[in-house]
Amino acid sequence: MRLRTLALLACFTLPLAACGDDDSTPAGEMQHDDGITRSESGNFMLHPMMADWAPTTGDHTVRFHLMNADGAVQASALTVEPWMPDHGHGSSAVPVATDMGSGMWEVSSLVFTMPGAWELRFEATIEGAVERFVMPVTVQ
Amino acid sequence: MIRALLLMGLLSPGAAWAQACCTGTGAGEFGVVGRCRQAVLGASLSYTHALASFDKAGERQPLEDAIADDVVWTVGGGARITPAWQIHGSVPLRLQYRGFTGLDADTQVGLGDVTLGTRYLAVTDPMTGISQSLLPFVDLLALVRLPTGRAPEATEVPTGADVMGAGGYELTLGVRVSKFITPNHALVVNGSVGLRPARDLDLPGGTRRFAPGQVGNLHLMYLYVHSLWWSGGLHATGRWTGDAAEDGVTVPDSGSARTRLGAHVTYALQVPYWEITGAVWLDPWWDHGAANQPFVGPTASLTLQRSWL
User: Fold this and answer.
1) Shortest Cα distance from A70 to chain B (angstroms)?
2) Chain A residues within an 8 Å CB radius of B152
């Protein structure tokens, strides 16, 4: 709590008495900068197709681009789970991911039920292997 | 004896001791047996309208695309087991409205989290004023919150309007110190810690172990006893939680803070049996007045309580 709050509490009572994309990132730590999130393995990247995406509470449809250092990557499946790690819950709506081709996925029914720090937990199946991404999202 | 004291207060407005005696340590609390009483039953209606949220860094963000209104009807009461030891509890029924961009607005009704408590009066203030005695009232408190309301992870509607509870148990242990500076003016400090055990979240993708952060609470109150009929108080509260953990891994910066300022006025409709209390609570309207709070806003409440001697 900051000084101003403490001061007001006292006044009230006393008178009455990124993260960069650098290669030093160890595998398993997902970094994000400019909306880009690396997979757990560090081999793939995912980012929303919106500059400065700042979602509000409610229902959203967003496109995400999956790629590696060589360009777009085709996944056979993609799942998304919105999650509030601080509070230990997600939302009841199950997002629907639709393959738009060329590494592009459209995710609909992406519902945020309250402002705060959320994560989008992605699982992409790429050449038979599952790649996991955790994308931090601040909901206004 | 108690009736005699009350009568003395009624007949002699200057007999402030009797006034204070009948206020005592339960003042301003819902469902808690007040001094000189043997039991209490009460009902309270409150309304909260969310105006803003606070992010992790404590920046206050006005709510622009969300409406969150909560109406809570709470019934509760308590009884003395011995003169110094009482038990009490409360049961909330919640009506919640949520309106978000792109979703149909939703209203849900349900049982909230039931709380059961006990307290022991360990030290008694003679209530003659600080010039006569430094002894305060000291109450030892224990409170358990039961997860009777629908948990956040169990929501079935897109808006989450059906989330009525915190989802887990919370055991609160605390101390409340009340000191009558004069027979009409008292200061109260209530400090407590809340212990919240980890729980398993059964989710479609599997089970996760979620451990909410532990809690610290502080409540400061100034109490003014004007007469046998009128009393009031000013409140400042703080609640701080530590970092949560998921599957044994601490979630960085997941702790939270919330402070509130409040005031209450109590009027005895029929001394000493019936009393009505109006209260208002406000959240800070400046940055860093709270942290990691999704919805904050003012609360107004009206409480009716019946006591037995």
Assistant:
1) 31
2) 87-89
Q: Write a three-state SS string for B261-306.
A: EEEEEEEEEECCCEEEEEEEEECCCCCCCEECEEEECCEEEEEEEE
Q: State how far the Cα of B227 lies from the Cα of A137, in Å rounded to an integer.
A: 54
CB contact under 8 A, A86 and B292: yes
- B74 CA to centre of own chain: 12
List pLDDT tens digits, range B237-265. 999 999 999 999 999 999 999 999 999 99
Provide the residue type at A68 as one letter: N
Using a CB-CB cut-off of 8 Å, the residues of chain B touching A4 are 286, 288-289
Which CATH number fits the domain that encloses residue B108?
A: 2.40.160.40
ipTM of the complex: 0.80
pLDDT digit string (tens) for B129-178? 888 999 999 999 999 999 999 999 889 999 999 999 999 999 999 999 99
Cα–Cα distance between A38 and B152 in angstroms, integer? 29
Could you tell me the pTM of the whole model? 0.83
B127 with B20: CB under 8 angstroms? yes
CB contact under 8 A, A56 and B157: no
Q: Which of B259, B87, B6, B244 is nearest to A10 (CA)?
A: B259
- What sign has the CA pseudo-torsion B220, B226, B227, B230? negative
- b/e code A89-100 from CB counts within 10 Å (16+ = b): bbbbbebebeee
User: Which chain A residues touch B288 with a CB distance below 8 Å?
Assistant: 1-2, 4-5
Q: Give the range of the structural domain holding residue B25, as residue numbers without chain letter.
A: 2-308
Give the separation between CA B265 and CA B233, rounded to whole angstroms: 7
Count other Cβ atoms within 10 Å, centred on residue B270: 10
Fold entry, domain A30-139: Immunoglobulin-like (2.60.40)
Cβ-count burial B189-212 (b if 16+ within 10 Å, e if not): bbbbebebebbebeeeeeeeebbb
Tell me which residue of B299, B250, B304, B236 sits closest to B273, measured CA to CA: B304
Domain total for chain B?
1
Q: Rg of chain B over CA atoms, in angstroms?
A: 21
Strand pairing partners for B64? none
